[in-house]
Write a structure and sequence with these properties.
The protein has 284 residues and is α+β, with helices and mostly antiparallel strands. The chain has 9 helices and 10 strands. A 7-stranded mixed β-sheet has the order 1-6-3-8-2-10-9. Helix 4 runs antiparallel to helix 5.
């Protein structure tokens, strides 16, 4: 059992770490973001781009004789095994940089947002309770959002995405440096985000129990989009049927003026932004 508390790992944020659009919401989306840490956009993703991306995905990750709905028939049901496949696959990049999504992201975090990570598996990530803020270096703050795009109607047995509305207000921000120090030698490895679950997940679960909270299971239909806050508690639940698809695209975005650790973001012809990242950082 962890001997740490959230306060042991907390850091102080200045006003500049939280966008003015969150501190002083003016639109319906901004109010939902400030209140719930989630904005849901039904039927939002363009069908044509989704279809082109699925064709691209299947050309690489599909298997001979793949049968829709049955993961075991795909060559790579986990999708691309590195964090930045948008650098290599134009339909994936286009879907992430679509104008409508770019507009909403800028509305929420107060500036244009560039994509820098994709999770492309057609099954649950199984990543336990966490939030994303502490995975980023200092200075990013809440100028960050993640996007869950449904490529199919999501079945309850497939391991739906789960989240806790309003949980971004529960704790102070976590310091990445203090988190990595708490992990000891593991904190110096590329696997430290997964290792952090050993400390943080019991703390999150205890808080859920103390608050008598039932997580929300996201059951979208094809084309629905969910955007979540950098400090929203969420996870990929364990599927009840291991062979069932959960077709989705998860993408992470940062404000283009808040990532000095990355090369300058580039503008896509469709309207959105992307960070030109080299290398093949593996995804879990």
């Amino acid at each position: 059992m962890s001997t740490f508390t959230i306060d042991d790992l907390a850091e102080d944020w200045g006003e500049a770490d939280t966008p003015a659009t969150e501190r002083f919401p003016a639109t319906a989306n901004q109010w939902a973001w400030q209140r719930d840490g989630v904005v849901i956009l039904p039927g939002f993703a363009p069908e044509a781009l989704m279809a082109l991306y699925e064709t691209e995905w299947l050309a690489v990750n599909g298997g001979f004789g793949a049968q829709p709905g049955w993961l075991e028939s795909y060559a790579s049901p986990g999708g691309w095994d590195y964090a930045t496949p948008y650098m290599d696959y134009p339909m994936l990049k286009a879907l992430c940089c679509e104008a409508g999504l770019a507009t909403v992201l800028a509305e929420l975090i107060g500036e244009p947002a560039g994509v820098h990570l994709n999770l492309t598996g057609w099954r649950s990530t199984r990543r336990d309770w966490h939030f994303d803020q502490y995975l980023n270096p200092p200075g990013v703050g809440a100028h960050y959002a993640a996007v869950w795009l449904a490529l199919d109607d999501i079945h309850p047995d497939s391991g739906p995405f789960q989240y806790v509305p309003g949980s971004h207000h529960w704790w102070p921000p976590i310091s990445q440096d203090l988190m990595r120090q708490a992990l000891g030698l593991e904190g110096a490895t590329p696997q430290w985000p997964a290792a952090s679950e050993r400390i943080l997940t019991p703390l999150f679960e205890a808080e859920l129990e103390a608050r008598h909270v039932t997580p929300t299971s996201y059951r979208p239909v094809r084309g629905d989009v969910l955007i979540w806050h950098s400090r929203l508690l969420h996870r990929g639940s364990v599927p009840r049927d291991e062979t069932m698809e959960r077709r989705a695209l998860i993408s992470h975005f940062s404000g283009i003026h808040h990532r000095p650790d990355m090369p300058p973001a580039r503008h896509h012809p469709l309207g959105g932004w992307w960070f030109p990242l080299d290398g093949r950082q593996p995804v879990r």
